Amino acid sequence: MLYPKIGFIGLGLIGGSIAKIIKEKYPETEMIAIASRESTIQAAYADGIITNDTMLDLEAFADCDLLFLCGPVRVNVDYLTRLANILPAHCIITDVGSVKGDITKAVADLGLTSRFIGGHPMAGSEAIGYDHSSPYLLENAYYILTVTDDFSSERLADFSAFITSLGALTLIMSPEKHDFATACISHLPHVIAASLVNFVAENDFVDETMKTIAAGGFRDITRIASSSPVMWQHICATNRDEILKAAALYQKSLQDFITSITDQKDDAVIRLFSSAKDYRDDLPLKKQGVLPSSYEFYLDLADEAGAIATIATTLAANGISIKNIGIVHNREFEKGVLRIELYDQAAMDAAELVLSKHYTIHES
């Protein structure tokens, strides 16, 4: 076994999901963990995931073969500093954060570059905490690995193979490339989504007309604004330079639209929308990326008493839990009347299979 004993600092959505899939794939692996809440440790112990049922001192990690740092970036750096002289020399240290600059610098300052692999599983959801973790979260998701030049290629290959065995797709790049890429496709979009929601809220009418009719495209492009404010404050602080760099480039792109519309340059407007459509349409399907996935579909539904209850009962009878369900009043972009959101891809596939026997399904 490559990593007989694995430790986790933090056991929330990501840490808990990684631990669960490791236990499923490698049941003989011993895993221990600490978390911000005692109840999390007790829940993971009750699930048979970890061997400790109470909080541990950091010395308990002294014989780990692999350590996952699964807290916010600054918390990870703090624990790394405290664990530097406790962990054995052979132990591989990795994190799951979406920013690599600060922790890579801390690793260098502590002389741990030959033992540290930056990790970023590009999977997640708006939900947080161990209770929402799943052994299927990494399935078919990209998992970025970052290392410095002095890291052993053999140890990197071993760790990459281990992550791949958990169902993820590994990509290897430098910490600098990672931070700019995630600033562009994740961090800046979260800032834009939040600012767009605030913009609409500040300019809405007294009777909240905009809020009432907001749906379709607005809901879709602002969904990520529901993510944890504290987490995103941490990300903006730790990836500040790359986010600002990306924002400056985005301002130019937005200005191209503004100028073309102002000057009534129809050809330019069409070109800008067309290039965006072409790039967007070419994005890979059925792959998890850095932004949390939404598992939803729409269906046609007659306005009859008990219609929604029938659907909910049908799904429940088949062991399918609904995350959200509701009538779509603004169908400018959706084809169906009823929107159903599930918790994961497996649940969505099962729900579509069951309901397609009696209803017309439209995927988003």
Strand and helix map with partners:
Blueprint: E1 5-9, H1 13-25, E2 30-34, H2 38-46, E3 66-69, H3 73-83, E4 92-95, H4 101-109, E5 116-121, E6 142-146, H5 153-165, E7 169-173, H6 175-203, H7 209-213, H8 216-222, H9 229-238, H10 240-262, H11 266-281, E8 295-299, H12 307-317, E9 322-327, E10 338-342, H13 345-355, E11 361-363
Helix pairs in contact: 3-4, 6-10, 10-11
What does the model show?
Belongs to the prephenate/arogenate dehydrogenase family. By secondary structure, this protein is α/β, with parallel strands linked by helices. The chain has 3 domains: 5-175, NAD(P)-binding Rossmann-like Domain (Rossmann fold, 3-Layer(aba) Sandwich), CATH 3.40.50; 179-281, 6-phosphogluconate dehydrogenase C-terminal like domain (6-phosphogluconate dehydrogenase C-terminal fold); 295-363, Alpha-Beta Plaits (2-Layer Sandwich), CATH 3.30.70.260. It contains 13 helices and 11 strands. The strands form 2 sheets. A 7-stranded mixed beta sheet has the order 2-1-3-4-5-6-7, with helices on both faces. The longest helix has 29 residues, at 175-203. It is globular. The two termini are 43 Å apart.
